[in-house]
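Whiteboard transcription, Tuesday session. T.W. wrote the C-alpha cells on the left side:
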C-alpha cells in the first residue's frame, strides 16, 4: 500500500494546514457475509446480519491512500484499531465521535500531534473562555458548565470555547447550530485559535468525508459484498483481493493525473476497470514486452474519460476549499508518448 501511493493534494504555503506532514482519517466500514460464518465473524445485528466483518481503515488524505487496513468481526470495537498516538506527531487526526476518548486525544497532543474529532452532545466540560465566530469574547459564559450554555447556541449560531475536563483533557470546543435538526454540533480540537479559525476547523473536518467516498467505491465498484462461501479463509481472501483491486485502480487514477496534468475522479476510474486492468493483466501474463505500451494507453484513456466533473466546485466548496490544490508534478518518464488523439485502449 505504501508503494502504490503518491502525493495528490498539497496545501498552499500560506495555509496553516501546510505545516502537517500527514493528515490521517480513521474510520470503519462493515458489511454482511454469509450467515453460516457467524461463529467466525459475529455481527452486531444478530437478527439482520448474524455474520458480518468490519474493515478498520486509516487513510492518508494528502496521498488519498491507505496507511493501514485491519479486518475483524463486526462485533469488535473500532477504538481498538485507532492509530497509535505517537504516529500522529506533526500530523492531524480526523475522526468521528466514536473516537472521542479523552485520554487518547490527550496522548496525541502530548506526542506533538493534532486532532479534530466530533463528539456527542452529552459532554459537559467546564468553559474557561468563550468567543463568537468573529473572535469576540463572551465573558458571561466563562466558568460555566457546557450544559448551562447549550440553550444559547442557536442565538450565537457558533461558539468557539476553551474547555477542560477534570484530570483528562483541555481542548478547544467548536459548537455550531444545525438548523435542519435544530440542535448543536460539537467538534473537539487542539488546533490553536491564533492560527486556525472556527470556519477553517469546520471545513477541515468535512474532509473526513473522503474516507466515506472511498468506502462507497469499494462497495459499489469492487465487488466487496457478502461472498457466497461458507469457508472463512476463502471469504477473507476474496475481501483482500477486492481491496487489492481497489488500491490498484486508485493508483492508476493518480498516475494518470500526474502524467497528463488533469484532475482525475477515482470514482469514475473505479467504475471502469474493464477498460484498464484487463488489458494490463493480459499483457503481464502473455506479452510482457507490450506491458509499457499497454499501460501508456490505459492511463491515457483515463486522462480523457475519467476527469473530475466539477473541479471549480472542488475549490469553492469541496476538498480544495482550504487553500488546497491538486498536486500534479510531472513524472520523469516517457509515458506521454501516446498521441493525444487516442480515445481508447485499442490493441
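and on the right, the sequence the group agreed on:
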Amino acid at each position: 500500500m505504501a508503494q502504490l501511493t503518491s502525493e495528490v493534494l498539497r496545501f498552499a504555503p500560506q495555509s496553516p494546514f501546510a505545516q502537517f506532514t500527514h493528515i490521517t482519517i480513521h474510520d470503519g466500514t462493515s458489511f454482511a457475509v454469509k450467515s453460516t460464518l457467524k461463529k467466525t465473524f459475529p455481527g452486531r445485528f444478530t437478527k439482520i446480519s448474524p455474520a458480518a466483518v468490519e474493515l478498520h481503515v486509516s487513510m492518508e488524505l494528502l496521498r488519498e491512500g491507505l496507511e493501514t487496513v485491519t479486518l475483524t468481526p463486526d462485533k469488535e470495537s473500532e477504538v481498538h484499531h485507532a492509530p497509535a498516538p505517537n504516529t500522529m506527531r506533526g500530523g492531524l487526526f480526523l475522526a468521528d465521535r466514536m473516537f472521542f476518548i479523552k485520554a487518547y486525544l490527550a496522548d496525541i497532543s502530548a506526542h506533538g500531534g493534532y486532532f479534530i474529532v466530533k463528539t456527542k452532545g452529552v459532554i459537559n466540560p467546564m468553559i474557561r473562555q468563550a468567543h463568537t465566530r468573529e473572535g469576540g469574547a463572551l465573558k458571561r459564559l466563562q466558568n460555566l458548565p457546557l450544559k448551562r450554555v447549550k440553550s444559547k447556541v442557536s442565538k450565537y449560531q457558533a461558539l468557539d470555547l476553551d474547555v477542560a475536563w477534570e484530570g483528562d483533557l483541555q481542548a478547544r470546543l467548536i459548537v455550531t447550530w444545525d438548523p435542519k435538526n435544530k440542535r448543536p454540533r460539537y467538534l473537539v480540537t487542539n488546533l490553536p485559535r491564533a492560527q486556525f479559525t472556527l470556519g477553517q476547523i469546520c471545513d477541515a473536518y468535512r474532509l473526513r468525508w473522503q474516507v466515506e467516498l472511498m468506502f462507497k467505491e469499494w462497495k459499489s465498484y469492487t465487488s466487496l459484498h457478502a461472498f457466497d462461501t461458507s469457508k472463512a479463509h476463502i471469504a477473507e481472501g476474496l475481501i483482500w483481493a477486492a481491496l487489492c483491486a481497489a488500491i490498484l485502480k486508485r493508483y492508476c487514477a493518480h498516475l494518470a493525473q500526474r502524467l497528463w496534468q488533469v484532475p482525475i475522479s477515482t470514482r469514475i476510474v473505479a467504475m471502469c476497470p474493464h477498460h484498464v486492468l484487463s488489458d494490463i493483466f493480459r499483457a503481464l501474463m502473455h506479452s510482457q514486452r507490450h506491458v509499457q505500451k499497454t499501460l501508456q494507453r490505459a492511463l491515457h484513456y483515463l486522462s480523457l474519460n475519467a476527469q473530475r466533473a466539477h473541479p471549480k466546485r472542488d475549490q469553492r466548496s469541496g476538498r480544495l476549499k482550504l487553500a488546497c490544490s491538486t498536486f500534479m508534478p510531472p513524472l520523469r518518464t516517457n509515458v506521454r508518448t501516446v498521441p493525444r488523439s487516442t480515445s481508447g485502449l485499442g490493441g
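Someone added at the bottom: Confidence is low (pLDDT under 50) at residues 337-347.
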